[in-house]
Amino acid sequence: MRDLVCGIFVVGGILACVCLAAPEPAIVPSPREWTVNVTYEHPQQIALHLGGNTKAQRFWYTIVMLTNKTRRDVDFYPKCELMTDTFRIMPAGNGVTVAVFERIKRRHQSKYPFLEPLEKAGNKILQGEDNAKDIALIWPDFDVHAKSIRVFITGLSNETAVVDHPIAKDKAGKPVKVYLRKTLELNYDLRGDPALRSYIKLDYKGNRWIMR
Question: Which pTM does this prediction carry?
């Protein structure tokens, strides 16, 4: 038991060091740095019978709308993850079939007629509102014991930072460099009985820009 407690303190200390070491995004970006405009729908559920299964599979998704007002075409290399307070990290798109996206697209056809899945959104965002992108970020159902989730969306900016890893060393004994990207974080609490999954509600707690 004592070893377990000590282990928890060690892990907590490492996380604290990483958090303290991580810089925050610039308040005033340099002339070479850009961030696209982003709006989003809050996550919602969809349950589908796939592959002849009698039991419906549940998925969560959010839709992000990206508009490039930077006066230049920009590269787009996104990374989108959902993290629970039980420390499960799920990349968007993993375990998600085309059929799931198509059902989501039909659900939102009137509002988002040009909706794209993340993996087909391309690696460029062209200038102007006429070239705005509507992208679906989709995850299989996550840990039913989770009480809160965070959604991380990276690739909306070219702002980066480099920090020293608090523990890892290279062959020369120097701290390993960790490369961070400006990331949008969305925070939600979950309400409801885990046994009644379809009735679970999300309480939006806000967003912030971080380096991750």
Answer: 0.87
Which residue ranges make up each domain of the chain? 2-211
* Strands 175-191, 201-211: pairing kind: antiparallel
Q: Could you report the per-residue pLDDT of 102-155, keeping only the tens digit for each?
A: 999 999 999 999 999 999 999 999 999 999 999 999 999 999 999 999 999 999
Rounded CA-CA distance 139/91 in Å is: 7
Amino acid identity, position 146: A
How far is residue 145's CA from residue 124's CA, in Å, rounded to a whole number? 38
Give residue-wise pLDDT tens across range 149-183. Answer: 999 999 999 999 999 988 999 899 999 999 999 99
Q: What does the H/E/C string look like for the chain?
A: CHHHHHHHHHHHHHHHHHHHHCCCCCCCCCCCCCECEEEECCCEEEEECCCCCCCCEEEEEEEEEEEECCCCCEECCCEEEEEECCCCEEECCCCCCHHHHHHHHHHCCCCCCCCEEHHHCCCEECEEEEEEEEEEEEEECCCCCCCEEEEEEECCECCEEEEEEEEEECCCCCEEEEEEEEEEEEEEEEECCCCCHHHCEEEEEEEEEEEC
Q: What angle do CA 44, 49, 50 make, to 5 degrees?
A: 105
Chain CA centroid to CA 72, Å: 25
Per-residue b/e over 118-140, b at no fewer than 16 CB within 10 Å? beebeeebeeeeeebbbbbbbbe
- Structure-token match 């420390």, residue found: 87
